[in-house]
């Protein structure tokens, strides 16, 4: 464990991660053939291709896929490095999980499309939830989990750790996550801790797995990191630095803007060596806003959708969450279909807790959502009663 002599941060600073506006944004990992993975995820899992970018000067390309827009959903960021066709996944990375209402049917569909089912559907060992496992073309495992209520199908990133208590403490203190579920299965010699910013059914969680007696895993070179949003990378970075002194880990990039892009980030390894990148909320939305703006202008100019315009709710009156005030004015009181659906689902779960709902919808305030809801449902506010 790293020892340091730095001053103890104030209580206000240590409580910052829990007060911050955080959400798991995406997982980043490398694949040997971008088109092959895009085909597999869209055809077998039903994901949408959200955007692609090519950075020839750095010799790589990215593709973003998910079940909803990046402003509100956890997505997969695939990286293709020119000429690299395979990677070592290592033993530490577990799986990504997709929630589906009928695992048996999903497996049937995936098999019909040539997918590799590595564990047949049925109750999880030691429990009753129906699960199955599928391997993607690069060998990444996807767990299919049967659920009735699904906010975002991409619901878990499972990573194996060598000390569960230490890992839970790290994600609580450094990242402000909550331990939303802990399960010990002594009969199968493992324990898991679900860590996240809301309950398991409301958001994507990190599933940390401890196998009895196993303290080391190989990391390979395939899986890279998860990204999490923050309102202040500098404050967040200070807390991370402090927690690393107590529990271990390593800062890999000090807080600051990425040259060229200007998005403020900081990155670090947890005590098991798993990497997280904290990304400034506003900068992240600005990055998306650039393409949304182009999308809006483009669709006005030529009357058709551009970029990955097959996405519901990404039309020209799409409730854009860009911080560009001009754009915001144009779309002020409108919410996209995706946002409306998310608000309705969140309302069913948490009721009139507008700030909790706003936490799931970047760029929207609790007031905006409350106003929208009341205008739509004609209900008086609590203050009016
Ligand atoms: N040894 C396992 C421990 C974790 C584990 O077993 N998880 C459950 C899902 S929560 C599982 O994979 N069960 C397999 C099954 O039910 O067939 C690992 O490291 O992946």
TrEMBL record:
InterPro entries: Glyas_Bleomycin-R_OHBP_Dase (IPR029068), Glyas_Fos-R_dOase_dom (IPR004360), Glyoxalase_1 (IPR004361), Glyoxalase_1_CS (IPR018146), Homeodomain-like_sf (IPR009057), Myb_dom (IPR017930), SANT/Myb (IPR001005), VOC_core (IPR037523). Its cofactor is Zn(2+). Pfam families: Glyoxalase, Myb_DNA-binding. Its main location: nucleus. One of its GO terms (biological process) is anatomical structure morphogenesis. It is an enzyme of class 4 (lyase). Binds 1 zinc ion per subunit. In the homodimer, two zinc ions are bound between subunits. Zn(2+) binds at residues 77, 95, 143. SMART domains: SANT. Residues 327-382 form the HTH myb-type domain. It comes from the Eukaryota. Belongs to the glyoxalase I family. This is Lactoylglutathione lyase.
């Amino acid at each position: 464990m790293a020892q340091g002599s730095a001053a103890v941060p104030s209580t206000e600073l240590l409580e910052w991660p829990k007060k911050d506006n955080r959400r798991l944004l995406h997982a980043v990992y490398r694949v040997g053939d971008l088109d092959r993975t895009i085909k597999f995820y869209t055809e077998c899992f039903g994901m949408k291709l959200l955007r692609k970018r090519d950075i020839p000067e750095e010799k790589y390309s990215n593709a973003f896929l998910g079940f909803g827009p990046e402003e509100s959903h956890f997505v997969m960021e695939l990286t293709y490095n020119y000429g690299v066709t395979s990677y070592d996944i290592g033993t530490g990375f577990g799986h990504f999980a997709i929630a589906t209402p009928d695992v048996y049917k999903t497996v049937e569909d995936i098999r019909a499309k040539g997918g590799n089912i590595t564990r047949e559907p049925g109750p999880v060992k030691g429990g009753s939830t129906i699960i199955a496992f599928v391997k993607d073309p690069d060998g990444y495992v996807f767990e299919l989990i049967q659920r009735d209520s699904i906010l975002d199908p991409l619901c878990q990133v499972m990573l194996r750790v060598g000390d569960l208590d230490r890992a839970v403490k790290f994600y609580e203190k450094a990242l402000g996550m909550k331990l939303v579920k802990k399960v010990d299965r002594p009969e199968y010699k493992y324990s898991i801790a679900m860590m996240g910013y809301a309950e398991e059914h409301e958001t994507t969680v990190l599933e940390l797995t401890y196998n009895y007696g196993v303290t080391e895993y190989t990391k390979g070179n395939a899986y890279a990191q998860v990204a999490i949003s923050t309102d202040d990378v500098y404050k967040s970075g200070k807390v991370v630095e402090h927690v690393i002194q107590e529990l271990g880990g390593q800062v890999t990039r000090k807080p600051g803007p990425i040259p060229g892009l200007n998005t403020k980030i900081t990155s670090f390894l947890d005590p098991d060596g798993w990497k997280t990148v904290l990304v400034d909320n506003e900068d992240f939305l600005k990055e998306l806003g650039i393409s949304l703006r182009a999308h809006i202008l483009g669709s006005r100019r030529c009357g058709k959708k551009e970029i990955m315009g097959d996405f519901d709710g990404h039309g020209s009156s799409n409730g854009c969450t860009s911080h560009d005030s001009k754009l915001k004015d144009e779309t002020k009181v409108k919410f996209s279909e995706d946002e409306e659906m998310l608000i309705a689902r969140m309302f069913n779960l948490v009721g009139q807790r507008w700030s909790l709902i706003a936490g799931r919808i970047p760029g929207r305030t609790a007031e905006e959502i409350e106003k929208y809801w009341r205008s739509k449902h004609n209900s008086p506010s609590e203050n009016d009663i």
